[in-house]
C-alpha cells in the first residue's frame, strides 16, 4: 500500500510573461506565455498521509491555507483522497521573483497524482497545477514550454515545444532574497488597472509569435531582445497602475539594468528579464555567461551571481 510519493519539479523563467488573469478563480491568464525550465533551481516534494493537510518547507512548518485550498480543488476535480502532510525541500529563494511557486505547485501536483495512481499526461497535470499557481503549468516540461492561455478550464494548459539545440544560459543576479512587499497575485490585479494594459496584452500576442520564430531560427539575440522588451513593458504596467502603483525594482535593480546595457555596448550578448521581484536574469549564451558573471561580480560585490542552464521536466523518486 502506498503511504507516500515524491516528485521533483524545476523552476522556470518566463521569456514571455504571464501578468494578469482573465479568470481569477480558474487562474486563466490574459496572455499565453513561454518559458525556459532551469536546471539549477528546483523543489522536491513528498506527500504522505496525515491527520490534516499540513505544509513543511525546508523542515519548517508553514501556513497551510493555500496548499489546503489547492488540495481541495484536486479532490473536487479528481475524487477524494486522504489528508496530506506536504514536505518540500525548496532550492529556490522564496517570494523574490525566481518562480518558487511554479516548481512548488508542479511538484505537489505530480506527487499527489503519483500517490493516487492517476494516469494523466503532463499536459493534463499542468492544467490541474494551474489552479495552484499559473506558472506551475510550465514546470512539467524540459527546456522550453508554452502555457496556452485558452478560454476555459479545459483549454488552459502548457506543453513542451521542440527547439533546435540552443546554447542559452541565464546569469541570475540575486539582488534580494527577501519576501516581496507586493505578492504576484496582488501585483497582477493592480497592474491590470493600468491604462496601457490591453496594449501590452495585444503586443504580447505578436511578440509570442516572433519569439517562437526566433527560437526555431536559433537567433538568441532576437530571443533576448523580445524577452527584454516584454518584461520591461510588464514592469511599466506596475508603475502606471491606477490602483496603488508600485515597483519591484530597487536601486541595485536599476544599476544592474544599466550594467547590462553597458555590456551590450561592449559586444556581449546580454538582455534582461525579470519576474515579480527585484532579481534580474540576464539572457546570454553559455560561452559568454562566465565572463558576464565575473564582470558583474567585480562591480557588485554584495550581489550573488549564478549561471542557470536549461533544465529537465518533472521527475519522480
UniProtKB/TrEMBL annotation:
Q: Which family does it belong to?
A: Belongs to the diphosphomevalonate decarboxylase family.
Please report the name of this protein according to its UniProt entry. Answer: diphosphomevalonate decarboxylase
Q: Which domain of life is it from?
A: Bacteria
Lineage here is:
Bacteria, Bacillati, Bacillota, Bacilli, Lactobacillales
Its keywords, alphabetically, are: ATP-binding, Lipid biosynthesis, Lipid metabolism, Lyase, Nucleotide-binding
| Gene3D superfamilies, alphabetized | 3.30.230.10, GHMP kinase, C-terminal domain (3.30.70.890)
Q: Which InterPro entries does the record associate with it?
A: GHMP_kinase_C_sf, Mev_decarb, Mev_diP_decarb, MVD-like_N, Mvd1_C, Ribosomal_Su5_D2-typ_SF, Ribsml_uS5_D2-typ_fold_subgr
Domain named Diphosphomevalonate decarboxylase-like N-terminal: residues: 9-158
Concerning NCBIfam families, the annotation shows: mevDPdecarb
Query: Which segments does the entry list as coiled coil?
Result: none
Looking up Pfam families in the UniProt record yields: MDD_C, MVD-like_N
Q: Where is the Mvd1 C-terminal domain?
A: 171-302
Task: Tell me one GO molecular function of this protein.
Answer: diphosphomevalonate decarboxylase activity
E.C. numbers: 4.1.1.33
SUPFAM superfamilies the UniProt entry points to: GHMP Kinase, C-terminal domain, Ribosomal protein S5 domain 2-like
